[in-house]
Design goal:
This protein is an alpha+beta fold and about 140 residues long. It has a domain at about 45-140: NigD-like N-terminal OB domain (OB fold (Dihydrolipoamide Acetyltransferase, E2P)), CATH 2.40.50. Helices cover about 30% and strands about 30% of the residues. The chain contains 3 helices and 5 strands. The protein has helices at about 1-25, 55-60, 70-75, and strands at about 45-55, 80-85, 90-95, 115-125, 130-140. A hairpin with a 2-residue loop joins β4 (about 115-125) and β5.
Length: about 140
């Protein structure tokens, strides 16, 4: 009889600890120097003019333009990602697909190293951003 009450007490204590652990894990944690997580906000419509670049080459070496087009396409073929460098501000907008299963470069692959006008949706969170392109038009050089 003592054993079954002891076993029931240990089981209840274990289940309580798991329950409190799940609640604690779900609750936001405020740590000094770390901003609390923000809820994901809906994207907003944007229209931008800029150059389509391969992301890693641009970030690492600043490579862009017609002289870098062949390299950018080779990088893209080997898993590289594309981005848009805005003409006016120089801001960088990494590209994303409309869904996680969509190829983010599908709409812009043939416009690498070209200046384009795009309309799309910009998503921002925690200092990062991605651009989902809805439409694209090549601009004259």
């Amino acid at each position: 009889m003592k054993f079954s009450r002891l076993y029931a007490g240990v089981a209840a204590l274990t289940l309580s600890a798991w329950g409190f652990g799940a609640i604690a894990a779900a609750a936001p944690v405020n740590r000094p120097g770390v901003e609390p997580r923000l809820p994901v906000s809906a994207g907003h419509a944007v229209e931008l003019h800029g150059e389509v670049v391969e992301l890693s080459c641009y970030l690492r070496d600043g490579r862009r333009g017609e002289a870098h087009k062949a390299c950018a396409l080779a990088c893209l073929k080997n898993g590289g990602e594309l981005a848009l460098v805005a003409d006016e501000s120089g801001d960088l907008y990494p590209l994303a697909g409309a869904t996680p299963a969509t190829d983010p470069s599908a709409k812009v692959r043939e416009h690498v190293a070209e200046h384009v006008a795009v309309s799309g949706t910009l998503y921002e969170r925690s200092g990062s951003r991605i651009l989902v392109i809805d439409s694209l038009k090549k601009l004259d050089p």
